[in-house]
Amino acid sequence: MSTLETLDLIGIDAVDPGSAVQVVAKGLTLAVFRVGDAFYVTDDHCTHGPGLLHEGCLTGFEIECDFHQGSFDIRTGEVIEPPCTVPLKVYTTIVRDGRVMIEI
Ligand code: FES
Asked: Does residue 49 line the site of ligand 1, with CB under 6 A?
């Protein structure tokens, strides 16, 4: 049986609504997105190439990579627009005591 660990990433006030911040923790390079008061955490590296998704354009729940304009749904990691074909890894996100955390 595996036990999930909670990894504390960042304070909620450090991420403005409609934006994203990169957090490096435990060997993971993550993008923490905020849409309204909801938070979503994905891998920051685009699955298509060298783009970093926290530097992309966030529209609603869609993040467009600024390298080749492929895009993903930050809630599911599903590809929305090519040239990306491989889904993005997303993490179960918890907001507790003003902090954004993930299960790993
Ligand atoms: S590196 Fe992100 S779309 Fe190509």
From this structure: yes
pTM of the model: 0.96
The structural domains of the chain, ordered by start, are 6-103 (2.102.10.10)
Nearest one of 90, 78, 82, 81 to 33, comparing CA atoms: 90
Q: Cα of 102 to ligand 1 centre, how many Å?
A: 25
Q: What is the pLDDT of residues 31-90, one digit of tens each?
A: 999 999 999 999 999 999 999 999 999 999 999 999 999 999 999 999 999 999 999 999
Tokens representing 55 are 């530097």
Interval between CA 6 and ligand 1 midpoint (Å): 29
Q: Is the CB of 88 under 6 A from ligand 1?
A: no
